[in-house]
Write a structure and sequence with these properties.
With about 375 residues, the chain is α+β, with helices and mostly antiparallel strands. It folds into 2 domains: about 150 residues, no CATH class; about 200 residues, no CATH class. Helices cover about 40% and strands about 15% of the residues. The protein has 15 helices and 9 strands. A 7-stranded mixed β-sheet has the order 4-5-1-2-7-3-6. The protein has a two-stranded parallel ribbon with strand order 8-9. The longest helix has 18 residues.
């Protein structure tokens, strides 16, 4: 920093589009010079040129604010801004870029959510990669924006979960991933070959669930904030256990914290084995219209699991297939009833099936 100007190291890069600069800038400094542009929703030049509107998502910003507190937080890809030559000065002898400390000086081409999400970090605690275009015309800004946001390949959530296998520390995500793989590959499992482990079909007709769906629903029984738990464990701290009343909602929480992952897997096995026995046609079928072994049915069954489990014993206890079977036997729904005409695909159908399971089983919802 030099007076009322911000200085940061840069290298000059020449590509067919022209010359630009890549540097490392303190996140708070970047927030100061780009803040007004991040907040201005309707009048950003790129949006007007493309005829679109990129609204700032409060949910995404909050996710980033929580993420940057993690011990291994990183944003290795560059935030892209455009600055006028009236404001930007690059010293080739020292490789320093200098711009005024002014909230209106930078226009954000890509990275608005990261800039907003980094607003609370302490100064000098987090540097970010920044690409600076000087005097970039609006057509080129729009082309860069379109290349980044319209042509990139989205990484599947299932692949992201699969990468937890290679981490050394425990986390709710890694435990859930390991259970998914175990149940998908073990002979006799009710999930044998049913889970698309990387979210991509292998051609097996029995695959009906993505790994992301399985892990997401299992995590709801382990943690209210899986990323926070993971961060605490990486810092060498043990996340807090829950009291008995709360454990009725987070039924696998204390099992996870006691490293009793095998028992979580066994309970899942027993519950869905009971499902397989209760609906022996609907659970394994690959017929079109069947919903029990797909997202609609699985989500409803995972919601119902909590109520069935706590009605049979204290959280942390091992419930048998036969015990789950006694509850499921009360539910007067036949295999032929579990179809997409009765239970529509989506949250409405999931809620409908869950309510039917709860009401017909006569399990106490409290």
């Amino acid at each position: 920093m030099n007076g009322d100007r911000i200085q940061f190291s840069c290298i000059k890069v020449t590509q067919p589009i022209g010359t630009f600069y890549i540097g490392a800038i303190d996140a708070r400094d970047l927030h100061e010079v780009a803040f007004a542009d991040v907040r201005r929703i309707e009048d950003r030049d790129v949006e007007k040129y493309l005829g679109i509107q990129r609204e700032l998502s409060p949910i995404r910003v909050q996710e980033i604010r929580e993420y940057v507190r993690n011990v291994d937080a990183t944003f290795p890809t560059s935030i892209i801004i455009a600055v006028s030559s009236e404001h930007a000065a690059f010293d080739a002898a020292t490789n320093l870029m200098s711009i005024p400390r002014d909230r209106r000086v930078a226009h954000t081409i890509d990275g608005q959510h990261r800039i907003a999400g980094l607003s609370d970090v302490e100064r000098n605690a987090f540097q970010v990669n920044v690409t600076v275009f000087v005097d970039m015309d609006i057509e080129d800004q729009a082309m860069v924006f379109a290349t980044i946001n319209l042509k990139q390949t989205k990484v599947s959530k299932s692949l992201a979960y699969d990468l937890y296998e290679f981490t050394s520390s425990r986390s709710p995500q890694k435990t859930s991933h390991n259970i998914a793989k175990l149940l998908n590959t073990t002979d006799g499992s009710p999930f044998l070959n049913k889970i698309k482990i990387l979210g991509l079909a292998t051609g097996r007709p029995e695959e009906s669930l993505t790994q992301a769906t399985f892990v997401d629903k299992l995590l709801l029984h382990i943690s209210k904030n899986a990323m926070q738990d993971r961060d605490l464990i990486k810092r060498g701290k043990l996340p807090p256990k829950v009291e008995p009343e709360v454990s009725r909602f987070l039924i696998f929480r204390n099992l996870f914290l006691e490293e009793r992952d095998a028992e979580i897997a066994r309970i899942m096995w027993n519950y869905f084995k009971a499902v397989e026995t209760r609906w022996p046609i609907a659970w394994p079928t690959t017929a079109q219209g069947n919903i029990l072994n797909r997202t609609t049915g699985f989500t409803a069954l995972m919601r119902f699991l909590r109520y069935a489990y706590v009605s049979l014993g204290e959280p942390g206890s091992l419930v048998s297939e036969e015990q789950f079977g006694e509850i499921l036997a009360r539910i007067d729904l036949g295999d032929e009833d579990l179809n997409s005409h009765r239970y529509k695909t989506g949250s409405g159908g999931e809620a409908h099936l869950f309510n039917d399971l709860l009401e017909r089983s006569k399990v106490n919802p409290e």
